[in-house]
Each structure stands twice: as structure tokens, then as C-alpha cells.
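Sample intake sheet
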Amino acid sequence: MSRLPQRTASGGTVLLAGWLFADLLLLLLVIALGSLPREERTGATPAPTVPSPPAGTQPAQRGLVLKPCSFTVRTGSAASVRKQFGAQLERAGVAARTAGFVISFGTAPDPGPGQEAAERVNSIVTGGFSRFEHAPKRGYWKGGPSGKVRIDVFFLATPDGDTSFPKRCHSSDDGDE
């Protein structure tokens, strides 16, 4: 009867250490390949970049003035609403500004008529003023007596990138409606 050689405890440890070392090297290889930029991993060439225009000729980013200019109109005919709103835009010095978006609040004792008034005024304003026609709009109800709509206009930045609040504008955010 032949006897199988018995392993010693130190021989098993060396064998396990070798496998652990090989596994560690494989893990490091996977991490290194995964951290390479995509172009180097796939062998693809990067997409060509578009040259930027010379300094001073690039248009400014069109940001948004974060505080709304508020205007209040009495409901009535479309011509009357346009006349009231246009006069208020002129007084505030923002008639040449482009609207970023428009939110209107129609006052009425009940939500239905108030929201309808706000939406009607929104369509009159965005349809009647070229600088408002592409602005998203929303109409909401505000409790109170019928007949008025508050229009909050968030203007886009000026062409030179100025996003400061227009000096002659009034805002409902000021709390003195």
C-alpha cells in the first residue's frame, strides 16, 4: 500500500498566496483598463472639435431674470388688455425686453372663472406682443373680486448677458401688491 504524500501547512499557504497574488494583478489590470478614456479603450479617434468664434463675437448666454416684473390689467376686450399691458411695459422700461415665461393670476371668487381669465389674458399678451409670443405661459386663480389679472413676466437676459432686475419694474415678490 502506497502512501500519498501529505501536504504541509506551509506548502498550502504558499500556494494560496500565489493565487491571491495572481487575482490581485488581474483586478488591477481591470481597474487600469476601466480608468482609461473611451478613445484609448476602443481605439476610436475622438470627434473633431468645432472651433469657437473669436472673443467678442460670441453671443452672450441668454439667462433669465429670476425676479418677475408684475403688471395688473383689468379684464375686457383684447384691445383694452393690449393697450393697458403695453402702457405698463413702456412705463417700466421693458417694452424692448423678451419674455422668458409668463405666469398670470386671475382674481375671482371661484377658481374656474379666475383661471379662465388668466389664460385668456395670457393668450392676448403672448399673441399681441412679438417679444412674448414664444414664451411659455401658465394661468392660475387668485381669490378676490373678479375683473383683474396680475401678469408676472420673467424676462430673458439682455443681449449683453445682464440678468439684473429692471430698475423701473415692480414685482409681486416685494409683497406690496
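Comment: The first strand starts at residue 69 and ends at 74. The two ends are 106 Å apart (CA to CA).
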